[in-house]
Amino acid sequence: MRRLAALLVLLAVPALAGEETLTVERLFAEPPLGGRLPTEYTWLPGGASFSYLERTGPGRDAKATLWIEDAATGTREAFLTDDDIKPFADKDGGVKPRLAGSTWSPDGTALLLDGGADLFLVERAGKKVRRLTTSPAGEEVPAFSPDGARLAFVRDNDLVVLELASGKESRLTADGSADRFNGRLDWVYQEEIAGRDARAFEWSPSSDRIAFLTLDESRVPRFPHVDLASNHPTVDEQRYPRAGDPNPAWTLSVVAVQPAAAGDHPRWSYARGGEGAEYLVRFGWLPTGGAAWFQVLDRDQTRLELVRWDVAAGTTTTLLVEHDAAWLNLHDDLRFFADGSFLWSSERSGFRHLALHGADGTLVRPVTSGDWELTQVDEVAEQGAAVVFTSPGKDVLERHLFRVGLDGTGLKRLTREPGSHRAVVAPGGRWVIDTWSRATQPPRVRLLDGEGRVVRVLVANEHPEIEKYRTSPPEFLTVTGPTGVALNAYVIKPVPFDPTKRYPVIVPIYGGPHSQAVTDAWGRSQFNQLLASRGFVVFAIDNRGTAGRGRDFERALLRRFGKVELEDHLAGVAWLKRQPWVDGARIGIWGGSYGGFMACYALFNAPEAFAAGAAIASVTDWQLYDSVYTERYLKQPKDNPDGYRDSSPVNQADKLAGKLLLVHGTADDNVHWHNTLMLTDKLVKAGKPYELLLYSGATHRQYRPDQRSDEYLRVLEFFERAL
Question: Which of the following is catalytic: 593, 618, 647, 709?
C-alpha cells in the first residue's frame, strides 16, 4: 500500500492531452472513448485455442463475428457471424439467435446459441446450424452434460433434459410454478448470493444425474411494478423479500437422467432450511461423482457450513465450519481434488487467503499468507502443482496475476507491468489472455505464456478516441482518516488548470462493501473528465467499508451504514479545503445505488460540508431493501432498530440545507423507486425543496441510450447551477 500521507503521487504515464472538449453526447456515442475491445474471451476445451466476439460498425448496427484463434501460432478464423445466423430469426423478432453469451460443448465441436426464446446448436465442422427447441415458453440457463450428449435447461420453472442426437426431451420435474423454481434462482438469490447467475443445477461428472436447487417462493412478499407508459397500465409482481421478511425456502435434490422401469426419474432430496441454514449458497459434485457438496449459511450470515452429501447412502458429513462475528463474504474459491482434499479461502487471518484441507476437512497447510488479500482463484492444478490467482498484492491500487505452489512455496507475480490486469487463464495455466490498463492508459489485450511473458499483442488499442480530448490525469494521494488509517484517494484537476483560481469540487461516491473507486485502472466512465473540462475538481476516496484492505477495514460498517463512510469523506473534505485552488463552500457529491444513499446521507448529516448532491436510484430506508444484502451488514430490523433508523435518510430529511437532485427509474427491480417516493414525502413535510427526475420503464441497470445520456446531462447541468 502507498503510505504517503497527503502527498500527491502522479502516475508515470503521460496525460492524455487532445484539443477537443468532451460532451455528454460523445460519452454515450460509438465507438467507446477508450476504444472498442473484443469481448467474451473463452478458452476452448484443451486450452490450445480461444474464441472471442468482435463487433464492427456503428452503435446498434454493429455486426458481431465470433473468431477462433490458435494460441501457439496466432492463426485465426472467423467462425460465425451475425449474417450466418440471421436466417433463423423469426419475422416477428421473438426468436433471434445471437452470438453473445454462446457456450462451447465440452469437446469444442459445437456451439450453443441462445435465441431469446429457443436454443440453437452450431456444429464447428461445416458450421451447420440446428434449431433445438420450438417451445413458446422458452428455455433458460442451458448447460451441456460433461459428455456432451445432452443439454439441460429450465422451462416453466421445471428441469428438462434434451438428447442432442435424437432431439428427445425428458422433463425431470413436474411441480414448477410461479411460486416454485426448479433449477433456476429467484431475484434475491441471483442478486445477492450467486453473482447474478440464474442457473441452479449442476451435472454429475458421469453425466447421469443432476443436482438442482428448488426455491419455494410462496411466503416471499410481492412488490408490484406498475407500467404506466400505456393507455392500459399493467402490473408485474416481483417476489422480493425485504429486511426481516420471509425468504424463499430451499430444497437440494439429485435426479437421475435416465428413467426407472416405472417411467419416473429417481430422485433424492435433502432439505434443512431454517435456523443455521437459512440459505443454500453453493453446491456441486466431488470429482468422482459419488457424492455432492453444498454450503449453507445462517440468516445473520455469520456461520457457514461446508457439507459432503453421500447421495445414495443419504448421509451427510460436515467438512468445515466458518465463523465471523460480523459477517461472512461468499467466494467461489473451493476446488476439490480427486482424493477428496480441497482448496478453500478464508478471511480468518484478517485477509482472504488460501489453505489446503484434507478429505475429512482438517487443515493440511496454508497456501498463501500475509497482509494482502486474494481476489479470486483463476486456475488450479492437481496436488503438487500450482494455483493461479488474482490479487492486488501489496499495492491495493493494482490487480495482478500470481502463481503459488500448493505447498505454499514459489509465490510469483506473473503480470509485470504496473496497473490492473484482468486475466482469462487457459486450462492448466499454459496461456493467459491479459487485459491490462492504467488510470491514464485505456485497456490493451495481450497473450502471455505461463510465466507471464508477452507472446503477442492481441489488441494494441494504440490510438483510442479519448486522445482527441482535453483530459486531466488522476493524481493519487492518501488522506489520514479519523482513526489514523491512511485512506486512498485521487484528485482530477480542471482542464486547463490555473493554481491561482479557486474551483468547485464534485465528489463521486459509492462507498459500500465490495467496492473500490481508487485504482490504477482505466475508469468505467469518462464523466469525471467531462466534469474536469467544465471547471470542476473531481475528488474520490475509498472509505472504511470498501474492498481490498482486509477484514477489519471492511467490517467497520457492521450494524450501521453511513456514519463511518461519511467520517472518512469528511477527512477528504478537510484535505480539499486546505488546498488553495479549492473553493470549500462549493463542494458537491453524487452517486448511484449505495452511492445515491451516501449522497443523501452526506447532504443531510454534513450540510456544512456539501452544498449540493445528486442521488440516483437511492436506498432511502434500509427496511425497504432486500433481506440478504441488508441483514448481512445491519442484521435483522428486530435486532437492530437503532441501526436501521440512523442509517436511513428518510429519518434525516429535515436536516437538508443544500440543493438535492433525486433520480430514479420507474421499473427499478433492485432499489424500488418506492425509496425515492418515501423520501420526497418526508422532504415535503419538512418544507425542504428538491428536484426530481424519473425515467419511464428504466430498471436499476437498464436505461435506454437516450435516457442515460439525458440523465448525465441533467446531473451536469444541476451541478453547474448548484455550485
Answer: 593
